[in-house]
Amino acid sequence: MELQTYLLLSAVTFIIGVVGVLARRNAIIVFMSIELMLNSVNLTLVAFSAYLGDVTGQMLVFFVMTVAAAEAAIGLAIIIALFRNKQTVNLDDINILKW
Amino acid sequence: MDLYAVVFYAFAFITLAAGAIVVFSRNIVHAAFALLFAFFGVAGLYVLLMADFLAITQLLIYVGGILVLVLFGVMLTSNTIDVQMKTSTIQTFPAVLIVAALAGTLIGIFWSTDWKTTTDPPIQATAPKIGEMMLTSYLLPFEIASVVLLVALVGAAMIARREKKA
């Protein structure tokens, strides 16, 4: 199995995540797509780490996971606060900063 | 095709199929559970890449932590039935354009670059090495990450709490 195969797989996963962020209008689906994109980047890091014989890539993944956990906590708190105020998680209806 | 390739393609298929369900499913609960399989597939690929400690961490943090958090989000914002795809062509066209450009760039670069790889045997027992790095050359980022987590948790509690009526 070559490095390119892993890179292609993570590129495709990342692109699926981008489609989710751009095309879906449910805040939680967008949120899950971002998690998918973070995962694909982690996969790239681990693949490079394995094929270069260097554990630094795996350690970077831990920092990405930390940020992902922080993002999950804050993001869901924001979504719940929004839902409480506007009774919707549709991103098209959340437009109070638009003029 | 050897066993390694079979296992790789199985996990790759799980990851991609689950990812597609996350993005395209109309039912948000199905999407949340598909995310579980996507995380699981990535964890399997970590095992194939000899990142044993990372695979376990992936299962613990993503499947055990973040996914449960997402499910709480899904349940608390209810209205789970009528999740709709945005189908207006105004937004679909630029989206397709951006995704196509991104896909071309990423896959083109990944495919055409002559990546340098090592022929050394894979690293055994990664956990001690990672721990050593975290407490020596990457100590400052490690400490900053812990502060970030603390601030994020306090901030999340602050944002999500119900405000008292004065």
In a nutshell, what does this entry contain?
The complex is a heterodimer of chains A (99) and B (166). Helix content of chain A is 79%, strand content 0%.
Describe the protein's architecture and organization.
- The complex is a heterodimer of chains A (99) and B (166).
- Chain A is mainly alpha-helical and 99 residues long.
- Chain A has a single domain, classed as Helix Hairpins, CATH 1.10.287.
- Chain A is built from three helices and no strands.
- The longest helix of chain A is centred in the last third of the chain and has 31 residues.
- In chain A, 58% of the residues are buried.
- With 166 residues, chain B is mainly α.
- Chain B folds into two domains: 84 residues, Four Helix Bundle (Hemerythrin (Met), subunit A), CATH 1.20.120; 41 residues.
- In chain B, 75% of the residues lie in helices and 0% in strands.
- Chain B has six helices and no strands.
- The model of chain B has no long low-confidence stretch (mean pLDDT 84).
- Chains A and B meet through α1, α2 and α3 of A and α1, α2, α3, α4 and α5 of B.
Helices and strands in order, then pairings?
The complex is a heterodimer of chains A (99) and B (166).
Chain A: H1 3-23, H2 27-52, H3 56-86
Helix pairs in contact in A: 1-2, 2-3
Chain B: H1 3-24, H2 28-48, H3 52-76, H4 89-112, H5 126-135, H6 139-160
